[in-house]
Amino acid sequence: SQITTLINHKDKPKRSDKTLQAIQRVGQAVNLAVGRFVTVGEAIANENHELKEEMNVACIEARRAGETIAQLTDVASLDHPESDSHITIFTDKTGVVKAARLLLSSVTKVLVLADRIVIKQIITSRNKVLATMEQLEKVNSFQEFVQIFSQFGNEMVEFAHLTGDRQNDLKDEKKKARMAASRAVLEKCTMMLLTASKTCLRHPDCESARINKDGVFHRMRLALEQVIEIVTDSRPNGENEMAPISIYSAIKEFKNKVEGLRENLYFLSKENLSTMLEVILEHTEDFTDSAYTSHEHREHILELSKQAKMELEQLVSVWMQAQNQKTKDLMEDLEVAILKTCQCMNELKREVHSAATSLAADLLKYHTDHMVLKALKITGVEGNLEAVAEYTCKLSEQKEQLVEMCRLLRHVSGTEPLEITCIHAEDTFQVTGPQIISAAETLALHPSSKIAKENLEVFCEAWESQLTDMSMLLREINDVFEGRRGEKRVYLSLPRPGKHNANLKALKPVKLDTEEQAKIAKLGLELHLLTSDVDSETEKWEDQENEIVQHGQGMSSMAYSMYLFTRGEGLLKTTQDLFHQAEIFAAEGTKLASALHAFSDQVHNDDKPLLLLEAEKLISMCKQLQITAKTSVQGKSATFTKVDACILKTRNMMTLLCQLLPLCSKLLRKNKAGNGCLKAAPPWREDRIQTGTNTHTPERRAETFGIKSLENHVTNMTFLESK
After folding, report:
1. CATH number at residue 216
2. Of 672, 695, 714, which one is at a domain's C-terminal end?
3. pLDDT of residue 412
4. Whose CB among 557, 586, 587, 644 lies 3.0–4.6 Å from 625's, allowing a Cys bridge?
5. 159-183 burial string, b = 16+ CB within 10 Å, else e?
């Protein structure tokens, strides 16, 4: 960011002291940042001898480039830099460009080398886990098992930390979701491995116990392999991953092609469009062929499929005519055909969504009592093999229903991460069902065995946990469909005409034209930079559930959507959307001010006045923004002035927020060091899914690996050994 500022600096004949000082500050900031960066790089090099030489060379290059930039921008002390013999950015602009290029290439090299080291650490950690797993699999005595499992637990904790950091660093949302799924499997399987292995050791001649244990080891190996595939971005034997196509993504692509005909009548063939529709209709057969789809939904899907074929035929007919003769009437007919085709696809999309989500809601409601699992536990303890066999059949039926539900939900999930979560859920039901059955059979054969009973409990808990996850997943899928979630980091508090504002219907929503966007671009860019600063500050807080942090993140997200509006992007399409967003932003600021007042009661008396003063400033700014956003205006010029005022006031509030967050963080640390009256949330939580109110996204759901629970397993080994 700083380098871009320097390179884009325009040479002006008049150079004020302020400009000269600003240039020098930027140069110094770059040099200091490079110095800190290189120090870390050198420390990494000292710990990894195989890459030490390469890393040190890249660090030296980066440090040299940073120093060159600092020298070339040392202009604040020069009254007339152009007449001085000292070389500066004004006399040698190409020197700055060369130094910047060298700096960026050397910094990139350091990052790539550091990344290779991280990947190697994860692979080494995985290899340790696999080696210990092999020992656990072959062990014959309980005492030996306890000793090796203690080592295994420690290695899994290390692997959890390494992969957790990697997951947070991943930019690809799809890879992040896959990593989260694999780590969730490893977390749950660690406890399963413990009880399944103990059961097998207690009952070495029991076939069902051996099958149960082998299933856990196999699943853990697959999950470990998938983590390495994601980290190294490779697959075994060089094969490419072929993800199944969902109806949603196929419809989206089809509509894009159809709407593209407005711009270009010749960019694709009619055969291409026909093939794309055929693929979509083939996927709808997953719904129409399913035994769990209602008769009503099946009929509607078949009707819409038939209608889609007819609409495409009409579209192709008009399209072919328009290619030969571009008359006004034909182009109007083409527009109508495009609209009707897209409308039909939207209705089909809505129908399959309704079919999948209504089935899921019914199934999840029906299975909330876990009657089959309870019956398996009871009949297992009774040693009633016949009854266990009866209930295992019912569990198999339940498994088939839930697997089908996951397959249909994947089609309508709306985003790639949610699709992956659906696939993970399907795999979990497929694998856990048979494991519960083998655990129940083992208990029925050994009804007095406490370890066999504990083992069945663990697998039943995994099933119940997955059903809970499915309820949250269903909510997320509905949120995406209804527009409550979508683009990353955008606060989706969009207005609905006539609902939030009495004047909304009377006002004609307008968009900014290109000239207006250009005028407001600078203000928007400042807003964007401020959101980055706020995000950076909130990430420093240990307790991410803190009310101040959550309101700060909410305000940052809303400000980001307003920045996107200035670029003509994002979900705020009209000026009316922006004004409503500004109202919501001000309301969020008021909530933050209330949180600050509550926080002030917990800080030392010396610090309280400053905090309350800042809170009052924020309240005043919120009121001003709300008044501006609610003021009715007419005419293009007045509307643009209002837009400008809203974004300016939002920027000022974000500037204040950038000052407030570090202040609160400092006071929080001061209080902790002083009397410890403020209690921070623990950094690792076992039950984030149950306790968190805003942890419903897949990324947030799986960002902890249950490291605490792994550590507890290891601690409990002492007790097990003595027992």
Report:
1. 1.20.120.230
2. 672
3. 93
4. 586
5. bbebbbebbeebeebbbbbbbbbbb
167 neighbors 703 (Cβ within 8 angstroms): yes
**Assigned domain for 680 exists:** no
- Whole-Å CA distances, 73 to 15, 20, 484, 530: 13, 9, 47, 25
Q: Is 50 exposed, middle or buried (0-12, 13-18, 19+ CB in 10 A)?
A: exposed
152-203: per-residue pLDDT in tens?
989 998 999 899 888 888 888 889 999 999 999 998 999 999 999 999 999 9
Which of 65, 56, 5 has its CA nearest to residue 34?
65
Q: Note the pLDDT of residue 172.
A: 87
287 part of a folded domain? yes
Residue 105 sits in which domain range? 1-77+90-114
pLDDT lower than 50: segments of the chain: 77, 79-84, 486-508, 676-708, 713-723
Burial annotation 563-588 (CB, 10 A radius, 16+ → b, else e): bbbbeeebbbebbbbbbbbbbbbbbb
Global pTM reads 0.63
Task: Tell me the per-residue pLDDT of 235-252, one tens digit each, with 9 for 90 and over.
Answer: 665 555 556 688 999 999
> In this structure, what token pair is assigned to residue 539?
């990430």
Residue 61 shares a structural domain with residue 103? yes
Task: Let me know whether 181 and 269 are in one domain.
Answer: no
Q: Is residue 254 part of a domain?
A: yes
| Helix or strand holding residue 418 (H, E) | helix 416-445
Written as six digits, the tokens of 280 are 């979509």
Q: Alpha-carbon distance 29 to 26, whole Å? A: 5
Q: Are 292 and 151 in the same domain?
A: no
